[in-house]
Design goal:
Strand order of the largest sheet: 3-2-1-4-7-8
Mean pLDDT: 94
Distance between the termini: 48 Å
Strand content: 5-15%
Order of helices and strands: EHEHHEHEEEHEHEHEHEHHHH
Shape: globular
Number of strands: 10
Number of helices: 12
Structural class: alpha/beta
Radius of gyration: 20 Å
Low-confidence stretches: none
């Protein structure tokens, strides 16, 4: 299968590396330096040694700045372009995703288009209706920076969002799900094929929950410091409860940061006007 991956960030390159084991991958990016690195077999992501090591082992990845060239004969197009926060509206700016879909459909209407960028609820349906297409589906990624390859190879779940009344869309979702499973190290993976709006909400509210959880442990850390008691012992005992678990429980004096959690939390606040999530943001901003 010929696969085009648009966007050479963590998500795009992680997918390219995994899928290149069995398929030919063409990566598209507007950054010529990244494209040149990829074609010279140099990993453009420098802060993850395991990622760079895996990239060096690949043989089926080429890169280009020419989207038309990349997608014209592709069977599958994966879109992982940026969706920065619009600071005026506090909503995600999905314009790059929308423009990318427009360009892909113009060149190749037969390819399955999988959007992986974080997007506002309703974006996938809007694009499917705009282009009268059964080929556009949404499958969010849940990757951590510096652990992207580990996470994509061993996912907790694969979520695929589609128009569940569209039989062609259902077939495309199954084909994509089977493609991913055949390429991953982990074989027993839970797949959820759900509505497109539901899948978009899964990504946003997963990150909103993680933001809330990290804020909780930061507040616990402040409490322990004020009382002069041992934070590590409290966390260890609390997290023995399986309902709480032992992930995402390390406090950070700088609050939660990175590219995804803050902007996704802002999108959820904009969508819900929730006092709970507003409080999470307020507490995090205190640091």
């Amino acid at each position: 299968m010929k696969i085009s991956v648009i966007g050479a960030g963590y998500v795009g390159l992680a997918n390219a590396i995994v899928l290149s084991k069995r398929h030919k991958i063409s990566v598209v990016d507007v950054d010529e330096a990244k494209v040149n690195d990829i074609n010279a077999h140099i990993c453009p992501i420098k802060d993850d040694n395991s990622f760079a090591k895996a990239f060096r082992k690949t043989r089926n990845i080429i890169a280009t700045t020419d989207l038309k060239e990349s997608v014209s004969e592709a069977n599958l197009v994966i879109i992982s372009v940026p969706t920065p926060l619009n600071e005026k509206t506090n909503n995600l700016d999905t314009s790059i995703v929308e423009e990318t879909v427009r360009e892909v459909v113009k060149v190749n209407r037969e390819a399955i288009i999988v959007i992986k960028s974080t997007i506002s609820v309703g974006t996938t349906r809007k694009l499917s209706e705009l282009y009268n297409s059964s080929q556009i589906i949404y499958s969010p990624e849940f990757l951590r920076e510096k652990h992207a390859l580990e996470d994509i190879n061993n996912p907790y779940r694969i979520v695929i969002g589609i128009d569940k009344l569209d039989k062609k869309c259902i077939l495309n979702a199954r084909e994509y799900g089977n493609l991913m499973i055949s390429s991953l190290k982990k074989t027993h993976i839970k797949i959820r094929i759900i509505g497109e709006e539901e899948a978009e909400a899964v990504k946003l509210f997963s990150n909103a929950y993680l933001s809330m959880r990290l804020t909780y442990f930061n507040e616990l850390d402040r409490f322990a410091a004020d009382k002069g008691i041992k934070m590590e012992e409290i966390v260890d005992a609390i997290c023995l409860d399986p309902r709480i678990g032992d992930k995402y429980n390390v406090p950070n004096k700088d609050g939660f940061s990175g590219k995804c959690l803050p902007k996704d939390l802002d999108e959820v606040i904009a969508e819900t006007n929730s006092d709970l999530f507003k409080s999470v943001k307020k507490v995090n901003n205190k640091k």
